[in-house]
Structures are given as C-alpha cells and as structure tokens.
Amino acid sequence: MLKFRGWDLTALLNAAHPQAPLAERNLWLVHLVDWLRRAPLKDVRAGAPAASRPPPGGDVTPLPVRRLRHLLGVLERHPEHARAFAGVITSVWAETDAISLFAEVGFAPRMALWGEFLSRLRRRVLPMTADTRDLAELFELLFHDETDENWIHALDDDLLERLSLLFAGAPEGDWRDEMRAAITVLVSSVRAAGLSGALRVRMDPKRLVSRPFRHLAMAWERVEHALDHPDRAGLPAQLQYLRALLDECRAAVGSVPEHLEEHGVSVDLMFGVEQMQARLRRIEELLDCLLAEHPRRELLRLVATLVKVVHERRSIRTLFARHYSLLARKVAERSAETGEHYITRNREEYGDMLRRAGGGGLVIAGTTFAKFAIMAVGLSAFWGGFWAGFNYASSFVIIHLLHWTVATKQPAMTAPALAEKLRHIDSDTGLQGFVDEVAHLFRSQTAGIIGNLALAAPVVLAVQWLAWAVFGRPLVEAPEAEHVLHSLTVVGPTLLFAAFTGVLLFISSLIAGWVENWFVFFRLDSAIAWNPRIVAFLGGTRARRWAHWWRENISGLTANISLGLMLGLVPALLGFFGLPLEARHVTLSSGQLAAAVGALGLDVLKHWPFWACVIGILGTGLLNVGVSFTLAFRVALRSRGIKLADRRRVRAAVWARIRTRPLSFFLPPR
Question: Does residue 120 contact residue 319 with C-beta atoms inside 8 Å?
Fold first, then answer.
C-alpha cells in the first residue's frame, strides 16, 4: 500500500492539478485520503476556525471526520483551491470505469472458490498501482484501512452537504448512468447463475414456477424505460414487479442449502450461492441510490458497504471459514445420522450393543495376532506400517459388514447427534432431554468398551494357552511380551499416543462424512442403478440393490478403511520426519496385554509392570474416546452456529443427574 510520506494540507492544496496525468491524479487522491486518516492533529487545528475545533472536554468524532470538516472549511475560504479539487475529482471520475466499482467490487469473476483464493492471495502479496483506469482498483487503494468504514458511517448530513462541493463539476446524471449500467451487469450475472444447472437443480421447484431468473432482465429493461420517460408514470408498477422478482430470486437461491441432503454440497456451489445473494443485495442498494430524491445518505451507505466488502475480499481466513462451515455442517449431520445408531435408550438396545461390541472384540482378537505376525516379519517402516494398516482396515471392515462395532469409533459419530440436542436447552424440558442424551451416550460408550474388552482379551489369552497345550510354546513369545509391557506402561508416552489416536479417530469420521457427501453430490448411487453398462452387466434389480447397498455403507466403509490405514501408516510416515508417534487403541492394547500374560504366565499379575499397563490401557480408553468426542463435538457446535452460553446451567443439570441417578449412566432403564 502507498504510505503517507511528508504531505501536509498546504502541499496537498498546491499539488491539485486537473491537467496532470491520470496516474498522478490518482496518486494525489490516495494522498488526500491518507492525509484524512493520518494527519497529525496540529495540522488540523492550526488553521481551523473556533467553531470547528474540538470542545475542551474532548471529541468522540473520528479523526478523519474532523480532518474532513477542516478541509472543507479551508476550501470554502479559498475558492481557487476548491476549483482545483473539484477539477481533479471530476476528471478522475470521467476518465475511469465506474461500472466496475458498482458491479464488480466484492465479487469473484468466476464461481470457483479456489480461483477466488488465488485472487485474494495475489492481492495480499503483489503491490497495486495507481496507474489504472479501473475505479474498482483505485477504490481499493483509497480505502485500504479497515477502520475506513467506521468514519464514513460517522459523516453527518451537514458534512455531506458541504462535501458536495468536491463534486460540483460532475454532471448530475453521470453517476446515475454508471449505476444503471452496473445494474444491467449484475442482473445479467444473476440471471446466468440462476439458470445454470448446478444451482437450478438444487433450488426448490416451487420457487421456480414463476421463472424469476428468466424474467429478471426484461423487468429491469422496463424499469429503465420508465426512468427515461419524462413523467415516469409507469415507474412505480415496473419497480414493484422488479423488486418482487428480486425477492423470488432471493428465495430460490436461499432454498439451495435446504436440499443438500438429497444433492450433497460442495464449497464451489455454496460460494456461488453466496455470490448470487450478494449481487441481489447490491442491485437493491443501487436501486435505492437511483430512486432516492436526495441520495446523499444512500450513496454514503453504498460507499461504506463497498469499503467493507473490499476488506472482506482481502481476507483468506474469512473465505475458507465461511464456505467450509457449511461443508463441515453437512459432514457433521451425516455423522449425526450414523451416530444415532450407536446410542442406546432402552434395555433391548443396550443388550444389542453388548452383543455387537462382543463380536467386534472377537475380530480384534484375531487382529492382535495378525499384528504380532507382521511385526515378526521385520519389514521396513513404510511396508510394516502399510500391512499393519491393512490388517486394521480389514478387521474393521469385517466388523462393519457383520454389523458389529468397535467402541472407540462411536464418539466421533455420536458427538454431532448430542450437539443437535443443545438447540433445545433453553427450556427445562429441553435441558432434561439433553441430560438424558448424555446419560444414554455415556452408557452406550461404556457398553461398547465392555463388550469389546470382554471378548478380545479372554479370546487372546485362550488362544495363547491353547498354543501352549498343542505346540508347547505360545504364538506370542516372551521377548514380544516383554516389549508389550514396556510399550503399554503408563510410565511413558502411552497417554500421548492415545490422545494422538483419538485425533485419528476424529479425522476418520470427517473423511467418512466428506466421502459420503461426495458420493451423493455426484449421484453415484443413481449411476450404479441406472448406468446402461452397469445395468447390462448386473441386471436392473441387482444394480438397484447394489446402489442402495453402497448408499447405506459408503460412510461406514470409508470410516473403517481410513481409520485402519491411518493407524498403520501415519506413525510410519511421521517417523520419516523424526516424530516418534505411535497408535494406541484401547481394544488392540488389551489384546496385546492378554497375549503378554499368556506368554509370561499368571505370575506377571503379581508385578507392577503389568498393573502399570492396566492403568495405561484405562487412560488409553479415556483419551481415545474423550479426544475424538471433544473434537467432533466442537466441530458440530461451530458448524451449526451453536454457542453454549449457559455452561454453568448445563453442568449443574448433569451433576444433579449424577448425584440423584448415578446408575443411569451405566445401566439402561427398566
């Protein structure tokens, strides 16, 4: 940005030359606004009349407003300087393209998020030039400070009246012609975007019955003709019709997020929705300026709005925070739908959870021995991690296909379902419903972990003893058992590794939600059911059955495969960068400790290393569940815009349930 360097008001007054090259006049305007923003107070007070000086008690008026008031006082006392000022501003307006200021500031040239990201990055990195005929570019140079919007809003009517001196030489209808051209550009953009297939198929069909996007351009042409008519007799009716179409377009594009469950969501799509909504607002703002009898206040609001959107368009963080929030919400909602299946609310569901968790523990017992076998081969770090991940992923997929469960995968799925309940905690009934859900969730997680461990550890121990009886040696021998006791102990990095594993559990839920959204967005279930080649190969009935199966299982398969591969590969890949992180999964760790007991004998129970591992496994379970649940819960809250303001009230309600009905967190209601 251009910096203020040594300019005072006298120098600015003397440097105003309407015949100077356009680049110099543009630079002079930048210095003028910079003087308003940064000039020392003594420069303002030196020649100010007594009426314009701040009162003794202090003045809360923004400094740029006080400086502008002083500047106008000087111009009113020196007509020759006023003529030069007016000449510079009038000539710049005449030689620059104002349509871009009204129709393009704040909008991306293409409906693509990553293209807008590169454009914003360029604006932040590359310097801008004052040698331009694009008024939009010049506007960004003039109002590059984020506080400019505040002092522009602070201009009062009297100051606006005096400010018109600077535009005394501009033709009255000139700025109106530029605004009308800008509205034509905006109407064309809205019409094209509204008729594009990507947005149109996701709009509510009821909102498109009157074809508002098709009629928008014609309605604006009629308003223009009414504006050109001497008596403007038909203007009110034509304007009412145009505004009604704008409202219908706004309602139609606003219905797009309501149909994302059926069609899926993409950040580019939602970026296009926001761009269209912003263009519709800009059309309304320009109409207000055009139709106002005394438009000074409307023009001021428009300038302040343009300053605001200029700075919003510079922010890369705002771009991604705004447009990925909806994607996060849809991912969280899909996780919430899946998470509902993991919450038990009665004895029958609780028993079913125990049975399914027991089945998962049975498979994990086999996973434990496969892990020891892979370690015994002595592969390189990458291939050892790959085959370990393949082992985990295969086991998790088998558990999924058999409709069993692994407890640690549940928290990241159930957290969004719990977050949804926070919407209703304003009432006592809603608060009690939330506490009930907390109890249901805790009980479900407990049942899942108990079910997993109740079969995983005993089955591993039984297989070890069976190997002793048949082969005279266990499948997992003493050296490996000693390594287990050393690696799982609480006196070490086990708890850190457990928290790291909780992060991987959370990431797998995000990947699952994203892939399911991608599956829906590109209508792959419909492609499987109705693609001619697939139908010819599978047959119509089987193709539709496969489509339904994939739609129901794509999220679960993705979560299990991604989690398994991450548990194996991420530690190996991080090891290349000197980060010795490992995965610590509570069920797998329990199986490993049981294998160690089978190799070393029951005497190991008498020694501290074993109990240090037991404590480590308990901490592993808490951190696996707690970290993944907390991360998923925070994403769900933020993506829905829920602010848990009354934390004390919620905490008191949960503690009251613990004191009065503690068993409800462990046992289902009768």
Answer: yes
Token duo for residue 664? 């409800």
pLDDT for residue 213: 94
Give the Cβ contact number of residue 659 at 10 Å: 8
Which of 547, 566, 569 is CA-nearest to residue 558?
Answer: 566
Q: What is the DSSP letter of 97?
A: B
The percent helix, strand, coil of the chain (3-state, each to 5) is 80, 0, 20
**Mean per-residue pLDDT of the chain:** 85
Residue 651, CB-side half-sphere exposure with 13 Å CA sphere: 5
- Judged on CB neighbours under 10 Å (0-12, 13-18, 19+), 520 is buried
Backbone angles phi, psi at 666, to 5 degrees: -125, -30
* Unique residue bearing structure tokens 């901490």: 619
Tell me which amino acid residue 276 is.
M
pTM for the complete prediction? 0.70
| pLDDT confidence bin for 327, thresholds 50/70/90 | low
Closest of 559, 614, 146 to residue 392, by C-alpha: 559
Dihedral class, residue 373 (left if φ above 0, else alpha if ψ from -120 to 50, else beta): alpha
Write phi, then psi, for 555 (nearest 5 degrees): -65, -45
pLDDT reported for residue 60: 76
Q: Kindly tell me the sign of the dihedral angle through the C-alpha atoms of 101, 106, 108, 111.
A: negative
| DSSP code at position 230 | S
Both tokens assigned to 538:
């599978």
Least Cα distance to 196 among 128, 131, 120, 110 occurs for: 110
Q: CA nearest 257: which of 282, 238, 237, 277?
A: 277
pLDDT value for 1: 35
Nearest to 199 by CA among 247, 248, 271: 271
The residue among 456, 388, 409 whose CA lies nearest residue 559 is 409
Distance, in Å, from the CA atom of 298 to the CA atom of 304, rounded to the nearest integer, reads 10
Write the secondary structure of 510-540 as one string of H (helix), E (strand) and C (coil). Answer: HHHHHHHHHHHHCCHHHHHHHCHHHHHHHCH
Going from the C-alpha of 134 to that of each of 19, 95, 659, the distances in angstroms are 19, 9, 69
- Give yes or no for residue 49 having a pLDDT over 70: no
- Residue 543: predicted pLDDT: 95
Where do the structural domains in the chain lie, given as residue ranges? 98-128+170-314, 329-665
| Three-class DSSP labels, 413-443 | HHHHHHHHHHHHCCCHHHHHHHHHHHHHHHH
What CA–CA distance (Å, rounded) separates 506 from 442? Answer: 18
Q: How confident is the model over 585-594, as pLDDT tens digits?
A: 999 999 999 9
Structure tokens belonging to residue 4: 């203020």
Quick check: 625 and 443 in contact, CB under 8 A? no
Region 196-206 average pLDDT: 85
Give the whole-angstrom CA distance, residue 220 versus residue 217: 5
Quote the pLDDT of residue 260. Answer: 61
DSSP per-residue codes, 244-263: HHHHHHHHHHHTGGGGHHHH
Q: For residue 487, give both structure tokens.
A: 């690696």
Phi, psi (rounded to 5 degrees) for 97: -90, 105
Task: Please give the C-alpha separations between residue 40 and each of 32, 37, 148, 376, in angstroms, as whole numbers.
Answer: 14, 9, 17, 76
pLDDT at residue number 330: 60
